[in-house]
Amino acid sequence: MEPVREPVVEPVTEEPAPSPAQGEEEHLSLALANSAVARPGGHTFDFLGTPAQANQWLARHGLAPVDLGMREMCAAQLRSLREQIRSLFAARAEGLPALPAAVGAVNDAMTRVPTAPLLRWDDERGPYRATAHPTTAMLDHALAALAADAADLLTSPDAERLTACGSAPCNRYLLRQGRRHWCSTRCGDRARAARAYARRTQAGTR
Question: What is the 3-state secondary structure (H, E, C) of the chain?
């Protein structure tokens, strides 16, 4: 028996970010789920592969400043939440039960920070309310926002359109429109080419 080949995961160096899949611009959790992109040949480009890249991804999506100073432990938390959200998206798209650990991870991220403006009292201003957002808690706020978006998507009517890209080996998710099951024009072209090749091969064996 031949050994199973594991996909090679590579941190992104010069790989440009792919165009957003349908639904990513409305749902940041979908963009997070798609931040590790499978390519032909068993390679996966991880746009959260290093702390600097994770920081850049958060900044690009308005979730953190560019100078957050991400550490590897924090980047690992972001990657872990991504995998839990991907697990929930897969369960929803395939009509399967969700893993309790994935549900728990999303709930934990959402409840890690205050969800309501807290009461503050200033000697000059008097009482007022403000959302706690210290620099040290920026990652927690980003994780909470992404987890809340995933929960919103999974419980919204849009969840009926959640599907995995139908062009192997792509691993991205999208909100389909009509019969389209591809996340990009490139994946659509690859799927059509694969079907055409299969038809020619089948015809040649008759």
Answer: CCCCCCCEEEECCCCCCCCCCCCCCCCHHHHHHCCEEEECCCEEEECCCCHHHHHHHHHHCCCCCCCCCCCHHHHHHHHHHHHHHHHHHHHHHHCCCCCHHHHHHHHHHHCCCCCCCEEEEECCCEEEEECCCCHHHHHHHHHHHHHHHHHHHHCCHHHHHEEECCCCCCCCEEECCCCCCCCCHHHHHHHHHHHHHHHHHHHHCC
